[in-house]
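Page header: ASSEMBLY MODEL / four components / 1276 residues total.
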Amino acid sequence: MKRIGVLTSGGDAPGMNAAIRAVVRSAIYNGVEVYGIRRGYAGLLARDFVEMSLGSVGDIIHRGGTILRTARSEEFKTKEGMEKAVNNIKQLGIEGLVVIGGDGSFRGAAELAKRGVPTIGIPGTIDNDIPFTDYSIGFDTAVNTVVEAVNKIRDTATSHERTFIIEVMGRESGHIALYSGVACGAETILVPEKPYTIKGVCDKIMSGYKRGKLHSIIILAEGAGNAFEVGQKIKEMTGLETRVIVLGHLQRGGTPTAFDRILASQMGGKAVELLLNGVSDKMIGWVKGELVVTDLEKIFSAQKPLNEELYNLASVLAI
Amino acid sequence: MKRIGVLTSGGDAPGMNAAIRAVVRSAIYNGVEVYGIRRGYAGLLARDFVEMSLGSVGDIIHRGGTILRTARSEEFKTKEGMEKAVNNIKQLGIEGLVVIGGDGSFRGAAELAKRGVPTIGIPGTIDNDIPFTDYSIGFDTAVNTVVEAVNKIRDTATSHERTFIIEVMGRESGHIALYSGVACGAETILVPEKPYTIKGVCDKIMSGYKRGKLHSIIILAEGAGNAFEVGQKIKEMTGLETRVIVLGHLQRGGTPTAFDRILASQMGGKAVELLLNGVSDKMIGWVKGELVVTDLEKIFSAQKPLNEELYNLASVLAI
Amino acid sequence: MKRIGVLTSGGDAPGMNAAIRAVVRSAIYNGVEVYGIRRGYAGLLARDFVEMSLGSVGDIIHRGGTILRTARSEEFKTKEGMEKAVNNIKQLGIEGLVVIGGDGSFRGAAELAKRGVPTIGIPGTIDNDIPFTDYSIGFDTAVNTVVEAVNKIRDTATSHERTFIIEVMGRESGHIALYSGVACGAETILVPEKPYTIKGVCDKIMSGYKRGKLHSIIILAEGAGNAFEVGQKIKEMTGLETRVIVLGHLQRGGTPTAFDRILASQMGGKAVELLLNGVSDKMIGWVKGELVVTDLEKIFSAQKPLNEELYNLASVLAI
Amino acid sequence: MKRIGVLTSGGDAPGMNAAIRAVVRSAIYNGVEVYGIRRGYAGLLARDFVEMSLGSVGDIIHRGGTILRTARSEEFKTKEGMEKAVNNIKQLGIEGLVVIGGDGSFRGAAELAKRGVPTIGIPGTIDNDIPFTDYSIGFDTAVNTVVEAVNKIRDTATSHERTFIIEVMGRESGHIALYSGVACGAETILVPEKPYTIKGVCDKIMSGYKRGKLHSIIILAEGAGNAFEVGQKIKEMTGLETRVIVLGHLQRGGTPTAFDRILASQMGGKAVELLLNGVSDKMIGWVKGELVVTDLEKIFSAQKPLNEELYNLASVLAI
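Prediction written out in full:
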């Protein structure tokens, strides 16, 4: 193997740069050249390539976002687009491709693999909704960003004796909400995977106030309801003042945590090792404290379950 | 003077605790007792008092919010409420009152002063919209909170080549928007004090993109337009993807900056000194690097102007 | 079981409060009373007890240190001290004890267990040097603290083109050095487990400079040499300006990361469950993504190995 | 004026990049070209120049350090060096020079001015020891860095009931120590400007402990004594456990605060305005809330006094 490519695709996630760095340095360490493909599959079609050196990934391990940038590409999803992509890869002499991204990005990767391009996926998405990996790159940072935000809100919530509803990312999954909710000691955690009633939420708030609590923090995954509606209904039912904060894109940014940098570094190194060993059409996961390799195909039909033990613990601790 | 009182009122602001600490310690240093009045004027009516000791304000200088809490009181604005408040103060033997808060809180303070209660106001509000002081307690922290948030957004904005509209606090004034906008190097700063057109905003964005910029940051004071509408219009006019973040109550919280802690400490110490010297019905301001005392009455009829020099500099630097 | 006790012992670690909270709330949830024992074994001897309520552990999950405090006790290590401790526990009606701390604290716990006090250990130490657990409470926070410090130093290192030696905690183990070194992208990581020569370190630095690097970051565990001596020798051998920073106790403090809070919450909940099930003389570990229980005795004779894979990866990435 | 130059010299300070950006953008806005001179006066002699564009200062406002880097130059202090520097400036067509740095850097600037190079100085040093300006660029960030460090130490200090001595920068001046000490609520602040006795320090600590304090924080400017010796003597005299932290170069780094970015932006804009107006041999200061211009010569013979009011307030508040 003489030359590989690396791209980031889908929503950006903190730690993607650490993964790019690890891919580039591991490859060069093994005598393999690396081309960076800018703006994901769109750049693959537009031949937006750049040769990567050791220095080109210097001083990026601590930066959020992705130096290769990311974009959507409708053309890539067409038959013509796919063929053009394969041609570009071949013309450039790229003999292996590392795709850092989420579910959608891996579908593209699997298509390329079918067409003879050796491809390895690295899970990078703050949502942590990719099955067959306990953590995806960016999740730990996003959870810590929520936790820091709630730290700030806690002060003002106590001062005003208010109920705060914090909406976090997660349209179809409550991973960020659950982990950050436990970490913040939130009174209530609302996730799409678990039905709830406003009355139940209000009962919990009121029992806390009766016990002398001066504020109440509710963490709501965006897929579990509209934060403003939830806030309004709680106000109507309890008479308490509620405030809503939608954290939104704040969760995507920021310097990655140590955990995300290390995870990304390990996955990047492993991706190169796999390509060198002739492996293709796989995703690298972090499962029970180890790097584990899974067929890309298996990912598309599976769903990542919520951490039930942690969800139950949350109820106990918010007694 | 044997005993004074201190309360926080209106929206909470980081640094209020440092001011409370300074009032308490300066008073005790001068042999004067201090009562904390909880929940602002509401607590004054409800006799929600607590005697403060040196230890009661230990380990609070770094905490956001206010340990005395704050609340609104409609009753206090009535004639009966005001009389009740004055009676409570006299019965408790409070011979001077320090009110930490904003414009609305000072109106109450001025009324009490008229009724014979020596009263000193300390400006505490993140909005920095109080005239006769260059800085109010909490402003520096709020500006830094915005700056940190934009740091995070910058990563993801660059990665996706997007335009971000960040809505910050300021219904009638653009102080937070202006200071944080300059500090972030925002392309565009929209404040209520200055008219603007969406077309002008779009022209600026497009000229940046033509020069090779990968993202655009717009800071919008809440009083200068609805962030979502502005984002939608920019998208329509430029074709660029826009994203909106409303920072909201995040700006109220957090551990206060060194500047806010020092400012609050100085103002708290000065408030006690003034009461001991028989001064009343005044606000302490920080004007051109010095503590300056102003009649409360003057504040209600004045308006704090936007920093024009800084506004002009912002345009030059965002060339 | 009607009543249990909880104490923190040894060096404090961020996340200990989250563990205390989880012990208290899980116990109360299960109808069991909890006594907090202040200042570790010293407080056990001095009967420095406090009954814990739901509210007593409110608003502590985000605080560094330990609200129960910690101290050393020579008396506890004597036969008389041990008997006194057992008596105090029995007189107070404590039927189970949770000990949050490190190796030394667990020796005391094992002694108590031998004398009939059901005891569960929770690993809390920033050093992460306890075997049979992949992570101890506080390690993730400490590593992130080092990473943040290096972020700051990186700026000034680049500006001055200097070599920085950062000494981190770890007298006998290089866990903090290794994890933070990988996360920072340090050029060189020096740990007690791995021999090294100054010449080797200098060769690496010089090859980086030849490649155009503007700074060099060396992470040194305190057990791997004196930072000032290492700095001096590098200067002599390379002629480069070196600077030394000893992070010291900074690493113990700070608000715990989400990871540490969640880990601590899980371990605290599990400790109560084990006591309720009649288990004793065990430590709870986090092994390969799961809570795993180990005999306290086994811990004393084992050593926690350095993560060899990560150590090797570090060399590859610092090429 | 067609072309100006800008350089950073001496120790780096957070905010220097914001000043560089402001110089470059203000100049280009006014139709003037800008050359960056790398590595201070050393680069001036070595002709290490780079033309600056609007884009070259994009995305740097939030970065610590200085993109132009800094270095010492012994050659520049010689007569030959100075002549060479003037020649290089003239050959490059530089008609005005902005020097961002401290006292030593300004001496060089004044020499250049004498030789016919219009020169303006911008005070950039974390120490804040330059007279005729209330704040120099980087001071606010450094003070906040100390405050954050003490926040972390406070947790562990309380948990162990220990006395911490924190050594901060300031060989001949106690500005960082005083401001950070007030902001942290330190029990004791030791600065070179004020004599003290260890006995006095110990009396203060003991009176705090008697009042129930669980920890004691002493902020020591490096010029006011050796932190380890002070710690040892306190231990001997009081029997209390002491710990020492030397913050060192941590204080130089980090992303600049909003205050430092705004100050730097204003000074950078003003420097260009002054050069365009034919002004030379001056430093821009921030005095009582305004930009004020002072002869460079006056700076060398003056000393910046400690803020006496703040020093006195510190004693009152640490009662």
